[in-house]
Specification:
Layout lengths: L4 E2 H7 L5 H9 L3 E3 L2 E2 L5 E2 L5 E3 L2 E2 L8 E6 L26 E3 L7 E7 L2 H8 L7 E7 L7 H7 L2 E2 L2 E2 L4 E6 L2 E6 L6 H8 L4 E9 L2 E2 H4 L6 E3 L7
Parallel strand pairs: 9-15
Antiparallel strand pairs: 1-4, 2-3, 2-5, 5-6, 7-9, 7-17, 8-9, 10-14, 10-15, 11-12, 13-14, 15-16
Helix pairs in contact: 1-2
Family: Belongs to the pseudouridine synthase RsuA family.
Organism: Pseudoalteromonas lipolytica
Catalytic activity: uridine(2604) in 23S rRNA = pseudouridine(2604) in 23S rRNA; uridine(35) in tRNA(Tyr) = pseudouridine(35) in tRNA(Tyr)
């Protein structure tokens, strides 16, 4: 007899979304268990009737992984009613979701998966997986910019963790982050007196767009071992 697991974990393992997103859906009343509103403390297995967003969750889905070269203008929120939503670019054969997000004005590498546990390994601060960005700003960088950014600056009432920042050209720098606050790089640059005009994520952990040679707007199947 299968062991019952926490509801959010069950939903993540079914490939619907991450555990964090599953918890949010439970809070929003979008999940039922055996005909009643779900609770976070519910433990379920494949014999329970679990409905998420009106759709019954069946057996554990095969785990799949994709790399996507996101263009500017694509919104990472999975909203079917929004023509700019990432949902319209996802594979039709299986339900996947992005690990971490790029804002609509940013471009570059996204990892898409239905592996909730792996998602947690990539985005949870305990694991500190590096993400590399190439950033262009609106004016010439001063001599103290990289040192100031690397040492940590105030963002959302906290000081950002130390990171690696290297100047690439007069108005461009490379930054490697191991945390992911909301619009972090844009806010860090703004604190230092600069406006980001292009933000391009090139690498997540050991996966790189350069190695993939993936054109903008394209998606490709990858292996979990390609990432970590």
């Amino acid at each position: 007899m299968p062991e019952k697991v926490r509801l959010a974990k069950f939903i993540a393992h079914a490939g619907v979304c991450s555990r964090k997103q599953a918890s949010r859906l439970i809070d929003q009343g979008e999940v039922t268990v055996n005909g009643r509103a779900a609770n976070h403390i519910d433990h379920v297995d494949e014999h329970d009737d679990v409905i998420v967003l009106g759709e019954k969750i069946l057996a554990k889905a095969p785990l799949t992984y994709f790399a996507y070269h996101k263009p500017v203008g694509i919104d990472c929120k999975l909203n079917a009613d929004d023509p700019t939503s990432l949902i319209h670019s996802l594979p039709k054969t299986t339900r996947v979701y992005p690990i971490g997000r790029l804002d609509k004005d940013s471009r570059g590498l996204l990892i898409l998966t239905n592996d909730g546990e792996f998602c947690n390994q990539l985005i949870h601060p305990d694991y500190h997986q590096p993400k590399r960005y190439l950033v262009t700003v609106d004016k010439s960088l001063d001599s103290d910019f990289c040192k100031k950014m690397a040492g940590g600056v105030p963002v959302d009432k906290q000081i950002t963790l130390p990171c690696t920042v290297t100047q690439v050209s007069e108005t461009q720098f490379c930054i490697v982050l191991k945390q992911g606050l909301n619009r972090q790089i844009r806010k860090m640059a703004r604190f230092c007196g600069y406006k980001v005009i292009d933000l391009y994520r090139t690498d997540i952990a050991k996966l790189s767009l350069t190695t993939l040679n993936l054109p903008e707007g394209q998606i490709v199947s990858i292996k979990k071992s390609d990432i970590l």
